[in-house]
Specification:
heterodimer; A: 482 residues; alpha/beta; 15 helices; 13 strands; 40% helix; B: 458 residues; Rossmann fold; 60s Ribosomal Protein L30, Chain: A; 12 strands; Tubulin (chain B); nucleus (chain B)
Chain lengths: 482, 458
């Protein structure tokens, strides 16, 4: 299931499609409410809230939209939720977040996509095309200025992957000028869905062609982070208890009560989204808007896969223990423990890197750390100082400061190579192919085109990699006749 | 005569706010009456109730910064921005010069012109317009350039000065060099004078002179505002005949920009020290003036670590300059490193403020060896004075220079942009909004011309 979040000028629209997408989305809305409640003590519906929520007074006859400055009546998420099974969406509607969505924002069916990309993309894609466009339009209309769409989905299944990428191309068709940022959960090698390589590769082609930015996240990395935190908090070392609401896996303080199994992992992704949008929602001395992310991090249209890392993972509960030095936070952002993708950026080539800092951090801290870390990070020759930085004054709940790093790094190549290998293993034997080819609109060429697209993407990264370590001389300058 | 300030983008609005704060605080009621009233008239419109409203237009493509600046001003209790003097949209320019220049600028042209017109009409007499912006982002740079173009069309006879903040060399925005190149190339044909502040330099001042451990953008902006204030507050000039000059921007431009190919101006102020130390320091003119002169000669950006080895050439060596006579500062590399190379000036403006200005000895600044041979030192050197201490400093001296000081930073900027352009990285983002590869090439060509001109000063 993916959630699309539409981001308007200062607002975003979230689309969640599929089971994973909707579960993550649910965590996102819960944590967003928590964050805003923490910051907004006056109960006034302000700019920051408006970026993600509408304010509705259901007593009003005209549909009730309330403008800025008034009291908060009912907050409604700027979201569209799509799933071809009812389970997750129904659960959301029966839970404490039900108030945040209304029925016009939902699209469900009953039978699911059977982990089949073709069913999601072709079948449901055609059947529900009108309705999806309609719901998106309605959500967009509520926005004064739509800035971007967030799409959340997983790659390995059928709905998130297939219908999700269909939604993506609809977004491009209907709203070509609005930025599309996709958070994609990539399957681990041990994924229990056998056809996940097919689904992922088929989805990759769509992502490469229709998304402005993709933030890939691997389940295994999320699992590792969860384990690390649990280990830390169960370790029982005196003085090292973690503040419960501060850990990025925690939903404490949100509306949701007891935690569900995937909540911890989904909270991480939700935190990622909160941090990306923080500078668009709150003030700071150096703002970083969402459209600036695409502008600065995407040097060539198809190379738009960004490796995320989040720090800190938690704050210690004991306030007398000195907070970890600020500089440690910057170092952590470049350590593999904090990445949401298993890859090795330090051994590959950075094309660009963005640092979004939240909290009480000044420009001198930022500069000092960039100076310090630069020598160990290999940057492509034409972007030796390729840093995009943002300073937002409001930290996340439970922390005094935080950092999100998004790196456009050729190390994603290895993730894609992995995917290609798993795909090829299945495809060579034509395993399960007939399930796909049975679907109306699906042909063998879809597969060959998808794998070709992936191969050429890998090739582009490879080409850049080859320049690593080589001393590239300055390009000869124009000479002026005197 | 009044100056209307146009604040563009996050940087322009943040720095602009600090500037108004400085000049308002400086010209308080304890000061001499005429200084105070000239300063107020220059920067503020006074309402019937006596409230000071800044003669400023605030422009940004997203609302947060303007809102913050306006609130801060209102909370100061001493001055405010006009309620009807700002323009913002919901969505920024995405750090994209093309988005600012080709899309936002034209789209909002009428509204922006109206805002400026309104401020101009409130002035009894307009001395000129100052546009404040950064070159690294999308709004300040792109919309700022477009607005400057509109101002030039609308006020063809007025002086238009651009105050530009150049970003840190190690990056704030990845495409900053593209945005900077496009901005500078276009402004060169539009602006009367381009006043440049480099974040790296100002950051150094904060760290080494002001002893700040944790430097914020607020600190950086306040230093810039202090330097600008030192230039723009009332002063007695040679043309003003014993009264405070009514034409600061015009006199600045005519003193320093004698040729349209040479418009880049840098500035230094001495002394700069932690505000807590000011009360305990004694000031005399000879020391600071000596330092300021050597800072100019050796191209040192601050009053610490000045290279005293750099000497002015003897008459026989007159042709050697910052680049060793070769073209392209910094490209040969070796030229800038040799100790005997000095920073050649086209023109200099020295502004003295405070006690005993009339006894300050400034002959050292008229040395012909400092300048190119085109102008006599009498024409190349200008001196302004004000007996009123500025911004709590009992004595302060500011030097505004048209010299080779910005040659190296400019060359670095062009070199990095060119390397990126050679691989065509990010170009698709600009093409999307209407700037072509041809446009880039034109801008590169213009700037190489400027670099060449400054390199070959003799």
């Amino acid at each position: 299931m993916t959630q699309s979040v539409v981001v308007q000028g200062d607002t975003s629209l979230c689309s969640a499609v599929g089971q994973c997408g909707n579960q993550v989305g649910c965590r996102f809305w819960d944590l967003a409410l928590r964050e805003h409640a923490h910051v907004n003590k006056t109960g006034v519906y302000d700019d920051a809230l408006s970026s993600f929520f509408r304010n509705v007074d259901s007593r009003k006859s005209d549909g009730g939209a309330c403008g800025f400055g008034g009291r908060i009546q009912h907050l409604k998420a700027r979201a569209v939720l799509v799933d071809m099974e009812e389970g997750v969406v129904n659960e959301i509607l029966q839970g404490p977040l039900s108030e945040v969505f209304d029925s016009t924002q939902l699209l469900t069916d009953v039978s699911g996509s059977g982990n089949n990309w073709a069913v999601g993309h072709m079948s449901y894609g055609s059947v529900y095309r009108e309705q999806i466009v309609d719901k998106l339009r309605k959500a967009a209309e509520h926005c004064d200025c739509l800035q971007c769409f967030f799409l959340i989905h997983s790659m390995g299944g059928g709905t998130g992957s297939g219908l999700g990428t269909r939604v993506l191309s609809l977004l491009e068709e209907e709203f070509p000028e609005v930025c599309r940022i996709v958070t994609s959960v990539y399957p681990s090698p041990e994924d229990d869905v056998i056809t996940s390589p097919y689904n992922s590769v088929l989805a990759m082609k769509e992502l490469s062609e229709h998304a402005d930015c993709v933030i890939p996240v691997e389940n295994q990395s999320l699992v590792d982070i969860v384990n690390k935190i649990k280990h830390m908090s169960d370790g029982g070392k005196p003085g090292l208890t973690i503040r419960k609401d501060s850990s990025i896996i925690s939903g404490q303080g949100g509306l949701r009560g007891a935690e569900k199994p995937f909540d911890a992992m989904n909270n991480i992704v939700a935190n990622l989204l909160l941090n990306i949008t923080s500078s668009a929602r709150f003030e700071g001395s150096l703002n970083m808007d969402l459209n600036e992310i695409a502008m600065n991090l995407v040097p060539f249209p198809r190379l738009h896969y960004l490796v995320p890392s989040l720090t800190p993972l938690y704050t210690l509960a004991d306030v007398s223990v000195p907070t970890r030095r600020l500089d440690q936070m910057f170092s952590d952002a470049f350590s593999k423990d904090h990445q949401l993708l298993r890859a090795n950026p330090k051994h590959s080539l950075y094309l660009a890197c963005a640092l979004m800092v939240r909290g009480n951090v000044q420009v001198s801290d930022l500069r000092r750390n960039i100076e310090r870390l630069r020598p160990s990070l290999p940057f492509v020759s034409w972007n030796q100082e390729g840093w995009k930085t943002g300073l937002c004054s409001v930290p996340p709940v439970g922390h005094s400061h935080s950092l999100l790093a998004l790196a456009n790094n050729t190390c994603v190549k290895s993730t894609f190579l992995d995917l290609k290998e798993r795909f090829t293993k299945l495809y060579r034997k034509k395993a399960h192919l007939h399930h796909y080819l049975h679907v109306e609109g699906m042909e063998q060429s879809c597969f060959s085109e998808a794998i070709t697209s992936l191969s050429s993407l890998i090739e582009e990264y490879h080409h850049l990699d080859a320049t690593k370590g080589k001393l590239i001389p300055d390009a000869p300058r124009l000479s002026i006749a005197r | 005569m009044s100056v209307v300030t146009v604040q563009l983008g996050q940087c322009g609005n943040q720095v602009g706010h600090e500037l108004f704060d400085v000049v308002c605080g400086d010209a308080h009621d304890g000061q001499r009456r005429s200084y105070c009233s000239v300063s107020r008239e220059r920067f503020f419109h006074q309402t019937e109730r006596g409230d000071l409203v800044a003669r400023a237009v605030l422009i940004d493509m997203e609302p947060k910064v303007i809102k913050h600046s306006m609130n801060k001003a209102a909370n100061s209790g001493r001055w405010t921005y006009g309620d009807d003097a700002h323009f913002s949209q919901k969505q920024g320019s995405g750090n994209n010069w093309a988005n600012g220049f080709c899309v936002h600028g034209p789209r909002h042209e009428a509204a922006l012109e109206e805002l400026v017109r309104r401020q101009v009409e409130r002035c009894d007499r307009l001395s000129g317009l100052m546009a404040m912006m950064s070159v690294a982002g999308g709004t300040g740079s792109g919309v700022g350039t477009y607005v400057t173009q509109c101002l030039r069309d609308t006020f063809p006879k007025s002086f238009i000065v651009n105050q530009l903040t150049w970003p840190y060399g190690t990056g704030e925005v990845i495409v900053q060099n593209y945005n900077s190149v496009l901005t500078l190339a276009h402004l060169y044909g539009l602006s009367d004078a381009i006043l440049v502040h480099e974040n790296d330099t100002v950051h150094g001042i904060c760290a080494r002179l002001l002893n700040l451990k944790h430097i914020s953008f607020g600190d950086v902006n306040r230093v810039i505002a202090h330097q600008l204030g030192a230039v723009l507050q009332p002063a007695l000039t040679t043309d003003s005949h014993g009264l405070y000059s009514r034409n600061p921007l015009g006199e600045l431009a005519s003193a320093l920009v004698c040729h349209p190919e040479y418009k880049l101006l840098s500035m230094s102020t001495v002394p700069q020290m932690p505000s807590a130390s000011i009360a305990y320091s004694t000031f005399s003119w000879p020391g600071p003036l000596r330092h300021l002169r050597q800072m100019l000669v050796s191209n040192s950006k601050m009053e610490e670590g000045i290279d005293w080895q750099v000497r002015l050439p003897a008459a026989s060596e007159r042709s050697r300059s910052l680049t060793g006579g070769g073209r392209g500062g910094g490209r040969g590399g070796g030229g800038a490193a040799a100790a005997a190379i000095f920073n050649r000036s086209l023109a200099n403006l020295l502004i003295l403020r405070g006690k005993d200005v009339y006894s300050a000895e400034t002959g050292g600044f008229e040395d012909p060896a400092l300048f190119t041979s085109w102008l006599s030192p009498r024409d190349a050197f200008s001196l302004w004075k004000s007996p009123v201490p500025f911004n709590k400093y009992e004595k302060s001296a500011t030097l505004v220079s048209n010299s080779q000081a910005l040659l190296r930073p400019l060359d670095d900027m062009v070199r990095k942009a060119w390397n990126m352009f050679a691989s065509r990285a990010y170009i698709h983002q600009y093409v999307k909004f209407g700037i072509s590869e041809e446009d880039f090439l034109d801008s590169f060509t213009s700037l190489e011309q400027v670099i060449s001109s400054y390199s070959q000063l003799s």
